[in-house]
Write a structure and sequence with these properties.
112 residues; mainly alpha; Cytochrome Bc1 Complex, Chain D, domain 2; two-stranded antiparallel ribbon; 2 strands; 34% helix; elongated; iron; Cyt_c-like_dom_sf; transport; electron transfer activity; heme
Length: 112
């Protein structure tokens, strides 16, 4: 994104701007920006048994009251293998608390 003199942001390949871009509030765009989509599909079986879709994650955690905290911890700190197969979840410290406040409820809201 690049900012114009008017203060409006436009998509470009490169550019500098004194004004930070607006925060991403759309969960799908945020999942793409934070590279969640690199490993997780939104629906279906996911890319592999070890890389579950958000739909499968929601099926597993939606009725578990501490699910939001568990998922937040797994996104930020990663996890060892064994939850969905042999591939561990890498840590994603670039995901801020405000990002997770958008992403986690959206993940848990995926239909069954």
């Amino acid at each position: 994104m690049s900012c114009q003199n008017s203060g409006n942001w436009i998509p470009v390949v490169a550019g500098l701007c004194n004004t930070p871009p607006p925060p991403i509030t759309d969960p799908v765009q945020l999942a793409q920006a934070k590279n969640c989509i690199a490993c997780h599909a939104v629906t279906g079986t996911g890319y592999s048994a070890s890389l579950p879709s958000f739909e499968r994650i929601a099926d597993r955690y939606r009725n578990n009251p501490p699910a939001a905290g568990v998922l937040e911890s797994r996104v930020k700190s990663g996890s060892n293998s064994g939850f969905y197969g042999s591939f561990p979840m890498p840590a994603n410290p670039q995901a801020s608390d405000s990002d997770l406040a958008i992403l986690i409820p959206w993940i848990l809201s995926q239909p069954q």
